[in-house]
Amino acid sequence: MEGVVIRRMTYADLQEVCEIENKSFTMPWSLYSFKYELSHEDAIMEAALLEGRIIGYICMRVIFNAAHILNIAVLPEFRRLGVGSALLQSALKKLGELRPDIDTITLEVRESGITAIRFYEKFGFMATGRRRHYYQSPKEDAIIMEKKFG
Ligand code: ACO
């Protein structure tokens, strides 16, 4: 999307990030969760800005030998305009620079999260398993998706 800038997320962004999070999920991450992720050396946290306003973000972290996409959301009025794709591409580029040794990227998504599943499929992620009753509010299974990297 024209005019969108992707840059590293900072602590100063977190209030706006939490507003998007609250609009996007029935069980949103807390401010503390975002702070905790930002404090991790192995975290890749990116924000998308349009005219100085945050309109989306992605959180990825390397745990042992795999990169985990922990969270991604775009403000509802800016969805389907390529912002999520730009965030994911930016995070994957950083991952390649920081950890070229990583060979797998994985994530969990709600079974009912068809939009997110389609989004990840477009980038070559495939469903590889299921975690029973992984989510609350509503109780639901998680679909595990994976993609080879590198
Ligand atoms: N229906 C079908 N396919 C879709 C849709 C949709 N509503 N939205 C995106 N896609 C797919 C399409 O293949 C699309 O490509 P196309 O437009 O060329 O057809 C592709 O994804 C890329 O779309 P973007 O515009 O880049 O995605 P967007 O900026 O809308 O962000 C996101 C996608 C982040 C999933 C957004 O819909 C969102 O914020 N959803 C709510 C939060 C959420 O569910 N996050 C994922 C949770 S799982 C996790 O974080 C690990």
Q: Can you tell me about this structure?
A:
This protein has one domain: Aminopeptidase (3-Layer(aba) Sandwich), CATH 3.40.630. The mean pLDDT is 97. Helix content is 29%, strand content 39%. The longest helix has 16 residues, at 83-98. Strand 2 and strand 3 form a beta hairpin. A 7-stranded mixed sheet has the order 1-2-3-4-5-7-6, with helices on both faces. By secondary structure, the protein is α+β, with helices and mostly antiparallel strands. Bound molecules: acetyl coenzyme *A. The site of acetyl coenzyme *A has 21 residues, from strand 4, helix 3, strand 5 and helix 4. Acetyl coenzyme *A binds at residues 24, 69, 71-74, 79-85, 107, 109, 113, 115-116, 118-119, 122.
Question: In terms of topology, how is this protein built?
Answer:
Blueprint: E1 4-8, H1 14-24, H2 31-38, E2 43-50, E3 53-63, E4 66-74, H3 83-98, E5 104-110, H4 114-122, E6 126-135, E7 140-148
Parallel strand pairs: 4-5
Antiparallel strand pairs: 1-2, 2-3, 3-4, 5-7, 6-7
Bound molecules: acetyl coenzyme *A.
The site of acetyl coenzyme *A (ACO) has 21 residues, from β4, α3, β5 and α4.
